[in-house]
Specification:
Layout lengths: L8 H8 L5 H10 L2 H15 L2 E9 L6 E9 L3 H17 L3 H4 L2 E5 L7
Length: 115
Amino acid sequence: MRQFPRIGKEEALKVLKNYVDEDCLSKVGNLVDLMDLASVVLWLIHTFSVNISSISVVEDVESSQPLFVEIGINDCDWEEWVYLAKCTKDTLKREGLGDITGKVVLVCNESIQIN
């Protein structure tokens, strides 16, 4: 049974606009399929009850070329991030969405804070 149901473009845009502005949305769409990304977001929310803070594109500082899509997650420590990252990557591959795994990165905001 598929864990990532295929959703339509309209529903995907509605989901993603909660986390990203219109300008960034087109940049995200140039890197990954928006319907696949929205499916991942919904899966994360419903499976792990994560608090997604934002979705953004990380660019190379020298060339300004997009590198990957970052999904920022609040209220997540280092151990939770390790589990989420591994489980998400494994599930994406199993579900046939392996092409998105190298283009989407989960970032737990609290775990990368520098004191």
